[in-house]
Amino acid sequence: xxxxxxxxxxxxxxxxxxxxxxxxxxxxxxxxxxxxxxxxxxxxxxxxxxxxxxxxxxxxxxxxxxxxxxxxxxxxxxxxxxxxxxxxxxxxxxxxxxxxxxxxxxxxxxxxxxxxxxxxxxxxxxxxxxxxxxxxxxxxxxxxxxxxxxxxxxxxxxxxxxxxxxxxxxxxxxxxxxxxxxxxxxxxxxxxxxxxxxxxxxxxxxxxxxxxxxxxxxxxxxxxxxxxxxxxxxxxxxxxxxxxxxxxxxxxxxxxxxxxxxxxxxxxxxxxxxxxxxxxxxxxxxxxxxxxxxxxxxxxxxxxxxxxxxxxxxxxxxxxxxxxxxxxxxxxxxxxxxxxxxxxxxxxxxxxxxxxxxxxxxxxxxxxxxxxxxxxxxxxxxxxxxxxxxxxxx
Length: 394
Known about the structure:
394 residues; mainly beta; Methylamine Dehydrogenase, Chain H; five-stranded antiparallel sheet
């Protein structure tokens, strides 16, 4: 009896990988799986790519020239300096003052800010033809003649760039409360609050799709506002993505997701990229670069350019890596693109990268700090770090 049971057991084992159902005579096996997950493992060098005009994270005017340029220092800055370009004028804070620089004639003016201890400027904006400064203590001041006049102070702590909507300023406090300031009457009202996820505060852009605005409170907390009236509402897009993705949790976003052809592009600092449709809850494509994402560029033709610790990668609109350049810079900071060329900014200067023939040229030798921001204004490129504001122009 034991021998019979043993023989039956062997028969079961040998048939485990076989199909016992009925198979139609005209059946042809098909591989219908759609690959939405991949890992980047090695460089694949292709020919030069015409990726077109850059639109994210900041639109770059394609008419800006890049030949025979010089790098000029405009003004000293500090780590907490904030800047804005309004009506051909540069407004920048430094040493508890607001500095105005006229781009046309280089005239400079200084306005003393009324700041308490540990209070600093957070944002500069224009409303009703007046220039306002908002501080991290929710103090509103504006230029009147040669002086800064305090309009209101609400003593709400904030470190996130506000949203300007018609005559209203939406501010987000460090505790997750959302307030609305009426810029006509300087009255304030609480409109909502949210639960914050763990994460480091970053300088997030505000991007939009057909119905929503997207903004990061910190690298792990995504906020959504209705585009028509700027009303905040609880949106579970990031949570939905983390349920559906095959890459692991997205919790350290590089920037707010931007929209292209109805899909949102999510970039995680760990190297994960997912292109997700928030309406159909489908992942168009995703990839894990297994390398830290420092900065990115995105063109109107759908090309994604990624700067990592040791590479510059170009991805097509279907997630394929179509070009790769390995750099040897110890401290890469950011990249920008003009006229089909990619420029890599490092602590020791700016390099022109030719991905097509795998070469680079030293463009400008200069010492930059790691906290570097880039602006494209009035046919010029501006670079601001912790010490200086530079203009890159003809």
